[in-house]
Every structure is written in C-alpha cells, then in structure tokens.
Write a structure and sequence with these properties.
Layout (H helix, E strand, L loop, with lengths): L1 E7 L3 H12 L4 E4 L13 E2 L1 H9 L3 H7 L1 E3 L1 E2 L8 E2 L10 E3 L2 H14 L3 E3 L3 E7 L4 E7 L2 E12 L6 H5 L4 E4 L4 E9 L8 E5 L2 E7 L5 E6 L14 H12 L5 E11 L2 E4 L3 E2 L2 E3 L5 E2 L7 H20 L10 H25 L4 H13 L3 H11 L26 E3 L8 E2 L9 E5 L5 H9 L4 E5 L1 E2 L9 E6 L5 E6 L5 H13 L6
Parallel strand pairs: 1-2, 1-11, 2-8, 11-20, 24-25
Antiparallel strand pairs: 3-7, 4-7, 5-6, 9-10, 10-11, 12-18, 13-16, 13-17, 14-15, 15-16, 18-21, 19-20, 22-23, 22-26, 24-27, 27-28
The protein binds flavin-adenine dinucleotide (FAD).
C-alpha cells in the first residue's frame, strides 16, 4: 500500500507526528511492533512547553484528567527546585503523568484523525530512491511491503531506520548505570516525594498511582553494572539501606530496570526522504525529565513542514530547517544532561556535596533559577530567522498566550492558543488596516488563518507589533513593526517567502 508518510515507531513521538500530519490531511500510517502501549512508564513528566504545544491542539484538558500539575522541577536533583511558576504561561508547571497515559492520549488523538496504526508490525528493512521509500515489515498477517513519499524513524534509541539509512550515531557509550524500581513502600504512611545525595549515593523517591512509589538510585557500588543485567529487589533494597538507612518496607516490585548515560546524537536528522525524530535522533541520561518532551517538540517542528512539502506549498528551504532548528537545541540538551550526570553520578565525596550545596544556593537567586527553569521547560528556544526576513526581536520566539478580542465579537478575551487547533499558520493583524485581507488573498496562500484582533492585556514586546505570522507549531515566523513604512509590501513578501513554493509565486 502507498502512503505519503510512513512512521516507524508508535511511541509518543511517532504518535504525535502522525496526528500532526493527519491534521494537515496527509495520508500517514504508523508501524509499531508492540501490541499495545507498554505499561512500564519511563517518563513521568510533561514540561511547560510540551503542555503549551499540546494545548494549542486542544489536548491539555485530557492530559490533566490523569496528570497532576507540579509547580517545580529539578536540575541534577539539587535541593533547590526549579520554579516553573515564574514562567509567563498558564502552563507554568510540569504535569506529573506516566508515559503510558501520555501515549494513550496521543494515540487516541491520532486514531480520531484517521491515522492507520498497524500494531504488532515490526519493520525489518527500509530502502529509498529519489522517488520514494520502501519498507518491509512483518505483521500479524505475515510479510508486508509498503511504500511512501517520506519515512520518519521514531523508533527509539536502537532505531533500525537510522541504521538502514546509514546515519552515524555520534557520541559516547555508557560509563555509569542507575537502577529504577516501581515498588510498594509499606513504611511510608502516605505518598511521599524526596531525594537525597550523600557519600553512599544518590536516590529519588516519587509517588506513582496504585500505591506504588518509583525509586531511582545511583549506587556507587553498582554504577559499573551493565544496563543489560537485570535489577533484583535485593539490589535495590541494599542501595536504599545504605543511602537512606532504611529499605522503607520495599516489596511487590511492579517494574525493575537499569538505564545508562550513553549520550549520542544522529550525525544528521535527514537522509534524502528519511527523517529521524525523538530517541532515534538522540539519547542521553534521563536527567531533568527531558527526552520525551524534546521528542514531542520535534514532532511538532517536523509535522507541518513535511505536510507543506507534500502539499506543494513549502519553500525550498523549509524542510531542511527541521535539522538546522532542532540539532543545536539537542546539542545543548545533551550538554545539560552530561552536566547533571556529572553532578549526580560521578563522585560521592564531601567535595561534591559542597559543590552541590553551592549550586543549590545559587538557584535561590531568582534569575539563576529562572534561567535553568526556562531551559528545562524549553521556554528559552528562539529559532534563527529565515535569511531574508526583516529583523524583529520576536522572530523565532514562542507565541505567548496573548489575550485577544476582535471587533466582530468572534474573539472575546480569547487565548491565542485556541487559534491553533487546525494546525494552520495564523496571521495576527493588530493595525486595523482593511488592506490586509486583499494582501492575504492576493498571496494565494491557502494554509493561513487571518485573525484581525486587538490585545486585551498588554504583553511585553508586543505593543509595537503591526502584524505577525505565527507558524503552526506556535513560533513566530516574522513580525512587522508599526513603524514599518510599507507594511503591506513586507507582509506580502513574508507570506510568499514562508508559505508558497517558488514555482507558484
Ligand atoms: C528511566 C527513564 C526515565 C525517563 N524519564 C523521562 C521523563 O520524566 N521525562 C521525559 O521527557 N523523558 C524521560 N525519559 C525519556 C523518554 O522515555 C524517551 O525520551 C521517550 O520514550 C522517547 O520517545 P520516542 O517515541 O522517541 O521513542 P520510544 O518511546 O522508545 O518509542 C519507540 C517505539 O518504536 C517501536 N519500535 C522500535 N523498533 C521498531 C521496529 N523495527 N518496528 C516497529 N516498531 C519499532 C518501539 O516498540 C517503541 O514503541 C526517561 C527515560 C528513562 C530510561
């Protein structure tokens, strides 16, 4: 069967990307080897920017049905927590939600949008030529050969797509491992959250659903045990007794696992008609709860670009901007997880305890705390402007939750994020100039939703904005200032540069 896009891997990244493509009316399928979403949740967090992008698509209420908002996060499990509540957003918290539940919400949404999801289907090989890709898989009914215009590997760390595309996974192998246990702790009378770093190791305890707690521990006596060696309850108990002075009545392990700090990034995220996203493109020590979050942001970045290419409206540079925008962000992500690994797992000495105390004190300085909170939450992202866009300080930044009203009454103190349900570009016009409609019409861009509005609440940096084009993933493509002498010309050129293929300009 022929598709426009085949996605290998139906984890969180594959499911969100599939939904984004289906929203843009792309014929897409997901090939996933598991029969159902795994009940063992690696990730437990959805950070503020991930929540914002999912809010744009109307999914936040669903996530909050099972997830619990927490206003703080952590960096290297330092005692001073990162304060997300200072972020300028109604999503100024992390949602504590097991990966299983996040995946369920994303899969349900993808199904609602008509994505063909083939479970129990394992991809065995892929190939490409200049016309398309071919995938061989084995499913419940035997061998399957599928073709598509493009293929995305969202198939996790061991990605077969990355291997068959010949893309090197550059970086370092694991030097330490940590242990994880989802267990019952009979000596805790109520759900508790705490962490401890001392000369015996580093340990975090977090409450889960169903009376379980998650324990993650870096035990200096066990850090060189390879990831492949199964964890025993006894091993976890012994680490707890040494680090906490008690095993807290540990029993009934639901899931025991070991994970490492291998840190790698795909040398490139694209090879011809093949793309990589999520763990297939980068791996690192799970510190600060970032991997899944970053993967979701990649899915949001790639979806609309791939759709624009397939629908013949993408400018020639757009699809390659997936790599140029996301690669440096993930390089920074790998560095921040390496620093955290160093602070949590390299030495359990009084010197390291002193370093951690000092850093923890520094995080009491609001500006320092804000800087790291905005990094972990991905609020600090600013994509580079397209080469020919007129400079404006908003270019490449995330759209904040502006409160908008319109003369026709359609918007009344409305959160701008509600304008992004359909995944179109949004052209926000604040200058009450009727010529804007003609400019949009003359440009012939069908993928733009024009909104003429006024700001209900003042927003920093927005008072001089005449018109702004916001991308489907909620970042500003370009903004035009009110002092611009010929704004309609600049707007027409900006629309043409971003939303129209040169052959039809
Ligand atoms: C202990 C631990 C804790 C973590 N905690 C957090 C956290 O709190 N917050 C956070 O953001 N991140 C966290 N992470 C990271 C997070 O779990 C991953 O980044 C995330 O799962 C990546 O999603 P993905 O969709 O890219 O890949 P995956 O979730 O790995 O999904 C890949 C999918 O592809 C399928 N697949 C693979 N090969 C094939 C094939 N050949 N054919 C068909 N299907 C295939 C797999 O079955 C799988 O379903 C944690 C990781 C670990 C190990």
């Amino acid at each position: 069967m022929n598709y426009e896009v085949i996605i290998v891997g139906g984890g969180p990244v594959g499911m969100l990307l599939a939904a984004e493509l289906a929203l843009a009316e792309v014929n897409v399928c997901v090939l996933e080897r598991l029969k159902e979403t795994t009940p063992y949740s690696r990730a437990l967090t959805l950070h503020p920017r991930s929540l914002e992008i999912l809010d744009m698509r109307g999914l936040k209420p669903k996530l909050l049905e099972t997830g619990k908002p927490i206003s703080t996060g952590h960096f290297a499990a330092l005692d001073t927590r990162l304060n997300f509540s200072k972020l300028d957003s109604s999503s100024n918290y992390t949602v504590f939600i097991p990966q299983h539940d996040t995946e369920k919400v994303l899969e349900d949404w993808a199904r609602e949008l008509g994505v063909g999801i083939h479970r129990e289907t394992e991809v065995k090989s892929i190939s490409q030529d200049e016309h398309g890709v071919e995938v061989t898989a084995v499913g419940p009914e035997g061998k399957l050969v599928l073709t598509a215009d493009y293929l995305v590997g969202a198939d996790g760390a061991g990605s077969i797509v990355r291997k068959h595309a010949g893309i090197p996974f550059v970086g370092t192998s694991e030097t330490i491992t940590a242990i994880l246990g989802d267990v019952v702790l009979t000596e805790l009378s109520e759900p508790s959250i705490f962490s401890q770093f001392n000369e015996q190791g580093q340990i975090m305890v977090v409450p889960l659903k169903n009376g379980l707690h998650r324990i993650v521990a870096i035990d200096p006596e066990r850090v060189h045990v390879p990831k492949s060696e199964p964890v025993t309850l006894e091993e976890l108990r012994s680490a707890m007794v040494r680090m906490l002075g008690s095993d807290l009545g540990i029993s009934d392990p639901y899931w025991l696992s070991r994970y490492g700090n291998a840190t790698r990034q795909a040398e490139r995220y694209r090879d011809g008609r093949i793309f990589l996203a999520g763990d297939a493109a980068h791996i690192h020590f799970p510190a600060g709860g970032q991997g899944l979050n970053v993967g979701l942001q990649e899915a949001m970045n790639l979806g609309w670009k791939l759709a624009a290419e397939l629908k013949g409206r993408a400018p020639e540079w757009l699809l390659n901007s997936y790599q140029s925008e996301r690669f440096p962000i993930n390089t920074a992500l790998l560095r921040n997880t390496e620093v955290q690994t160093f602070l949590m797992g390299s030495a359990f000495t009084s010197d390291m305890i002193n370093v951690r105390c000092m850093l923890s004190d520094l995080l009491l300085v609001p500006e320092a705390n804000y800087k790291l909170a905005s990094q972990i939450s991905a609020f600090n992202i600013q994509y580079a402007s397209a080469a020919d866009d007129l400079p404006h300080e908003l270019n490449g930044r995330r759209l904040p939750e502006l409160k908008l009203s319109s003369a026709d009454g359609a918007l009344r103190n409305t959160n701008a994020y509600e304008l992004f349900r359909t995944g179109s570009y949004v052209l926000l016009h604040f200058a009450e100039d009727d010529r804007i409609r003609d400019v949009v019409e003359a440009a012939g861009a069908k993928c733009i939703c024009l909104v003429c509005a006024s700001l209900e609440l003042e927003a920093p940096d927005w008072s001089d904005v005449h018109t702004v084009l916001v991308r489907p993933d909620g970042y500003v493509a370009w903004a035009v200032s009110r002092s611009e002498s010929n704004p309609m010309n600049v707007i027409a050129t900006g629309i043409s540069r971003w939303c129209i293929h040169p052959s039809i300009r």
